[in-house]
Amino acid sequence: MCALKTLIGGWTTSHRMHEQEVLPCMFGCRNEADVLGHYLVCSPLWLICSQALSVEAPLRIGERICVVNPSVETLQLLALCFQVYHTQKLVPKSLVAFTHLEAIMYRRLLLSQRELLETT
User: Fold this and answer.
1) Three-class HEC string of 34-87
2) What are the percentages of helix, strand and coil residues in the chain, rounded to 5?
3) What's the pTM?
4) Domain range annotation of the chain
5) CA 80 distance to own-chain centroid
6) Are the C-beta atoms of residues 85 and 95 closer than 8 Å to each other?
7) Mean of the pLDDT values across residues 68-97?
8) Comparing 2-6, 46-50, 82-86, 104-108, which segment has the lowest mean pLDDT?
């Protein structure tokens, strides 16, 4: 679902939602606005999420949004980026505390799913 929402521009950025004030990047990038186009290349967002999943983030946008060389890992990475962005926007907290906690929780969920699949 996160990949589909990304493909159709469904992130709830302040730009897309026509908020009174377009916010800056949620992850601290200077001179970058709260727009989907930026988040597809936002280094802090992709670095945090790729490290949390122990995968390498694709460099090309087509790969990041899973239209070029899609894989389960890339879909999981995109889903985590989507979730981290939306939680960060909806629940303002310390960026470091939030992303670390979110990443740990998501990784545990993925590991649990893998273990379940391996035992069945």
Assistant:
1) CCHHHHCCCHHHHHHHHHHHCCCCCCCHHHHCCCCCCCHHHHHHHHHHHHHHHH
2) 60, 0, 40
3) 0.74
4) 2-119
5) 4
6) no
7) 83
8) 104-108
